[in-house]
Amino acid sequence: MAFEAGGSMDAEAREVRALEAEIAALQRRCQELPAPGEKPSGVRYVVPVHPSGSPIRKSCQKLPQSDSEGWESSKDLRSHLGHLKSELSFLSTLTGFNIRNYSKKIEAVTNTEVTEEGTTKVLQRHRLSGNCNMVTFQLEFQVLEIQTKEKLSSAITDLNIIMEPTEYSELSEFACRAEERRDLLMFFQSLHFFVEWYEYRKHTFKHFKEKYPDTVHLPEGACSHCMEIHSTSRPGFELVVVWRIQINEEGKVSPKLDLLTKVPQRALVLDKNRVIETAPSSFQTLLGVLGIEAALDSLIKLLCVGNN
Amino acid sequence: MEPVNTLCQDGESEGGVLAHLEKLEVQMSRSHKKSEELPRVQRDENVLRTKIHELRHLRDKLRAEVKRRQARVKACSANVETNQTAEISEQQVLEKQKENVKAILQAYRFTGLSGKLTSRGVCVCISTAFEGNLLDSFFVDLVMEKPPWIHHHSIPVFIPLEKIAAAYLQSDLQRFLFSLCEYVNAYSGRKYQADRLQSDFEALLTVPLQRNSLCNLLSFTYKVDGRDQSFSFSARLLYEDLTATLPTDVTVTYQGMEASTHWEEHRASHEILFRTKPLHQVFASFSKEVEKLDLSLVS
């Protein structure tokens, strides 16, 4: 019993001593730091405290030298930056590409590989992201630069493209092709033309919707890829213009318009001249002769005639 | 015992803590005296336990106080440091932003169109490439007046620059640039293919490559080794679409005298190949087994 009591008393006594020591250290610390009523004097380094309570006499933040040699003054920097920003803004408007982020890394691995005959190879990793109108892109690509005695050649050795939105199947197919060929330039050029056609389609459909609000319907809203023409006097008669934007193997962008007809069975029977049957091909001819806007306009007027 | 709050509120907090400790010591000696009546061991145990309890309490308070004061110091000194180093860190920030914008401007060359503002307008740089191979750059120095005009440029003379400018320069600058890009880039691509043919497949050409400066009319004679014999073909490639890197018109003719049953198949398949694949890649495929190639393409 006495042994146990003595043992527990020793433990407690130890704890008391430990607590007293800690309290003493904390009191010293308290004395060093200014009380809430005081103002801290001048600039002070924040001094970290060792768990034992003794301060580590080492400043944790070094103030940079305030000599301005080799640094532009803030004012010059600001105006220089302003100029660069306006250049960027101009370029962005001019090209239609808005590059928001870009970083480049020289690969440390096969950095400068000096091979026979003094050829050097440098591998660069690039990361680029931005948008072209409603399409946002994120690119990662590698460029291999080979410098021989005669010339310097650069080639893209790897290309990864992430594009949003993903619902344009033509775009995602096209992105895959560009990746396969590592054809970054074709990606950008075709993207530009795709977006141009996209905007033109949107604008054209909107125009017709406004001009003939009762006849024209855009099932998917402004960004619809098809336009329905309803005959209000003869419900059941409908023409649908499907307008796709295609990108071919070489990256050439072109519109592809097709006409679909929706007509009641009885009307088909009455159509001796097979006008409805031949409508889609007639439409192609019309497109070739009048161009897109005029062809669509005449088509809508055709059904509108019945409306008056 | 003084309440905790006073530690923060009045300036005598330090005094408060020390006074508290004094009080504690007094209390302890009092309780020590009090507990003298109890059996010595139990008395000591009680005393210790109480003391531990009190000490822990005090320690926690001190810890909290130290934390509070440290945080205050940090906040104050951060403010002071900020003021002192405000100018320098602003420079750092601006410098970083500047480098960032510069880098993005450089990155534009990957889109094919980049440029620099000039005193009178902009100098646009058109970068060309073919299937990932970065090729020559050309520039067009534009004066941005109403209407804009071309001050000088490095576009080759056989590119129809005047025609493109007449069509778009005054009305739609973006269209002008992208259209010009198409022509220049396609020329660069055709030139690259022709150069590669000449450099990589010289051995296969029995009559050297003939080309015009626009690289849209090429003619050459080449030999291909078939299963039993070798064929000699003459090819004429015409690229009517100047914005394309594949020919619109391909004529392959057989150059031999001997009657042969196989040459027609090869000839026809070669025509298709030249029309659908880049020139140097077609020749690269010739080095592989010819048979497999032909049969799969003719069908």
From TrEMBL, chain B:
InterPro entries given in the database record: CENP-O
This protein's record includes keyword Nucleus: yes
Keyword Zinc: no
Signal peptide: none
Keywords linked to the UniProt accession: Centromere, Chromosome, Nucleus
GO cellular component terms attached to this protein's record: Mis6-Sim4 complex; nuclear body
Ranges annotated as spanning the membrane: none
Subcellular location: Chromosome, Centromere; Nucleus
Family (UniProt): Belongs to the CENP-O/MCM21 family.
Protein name, entry field: Centromere protein O
Species the sequence originates in: Nannospalax galili
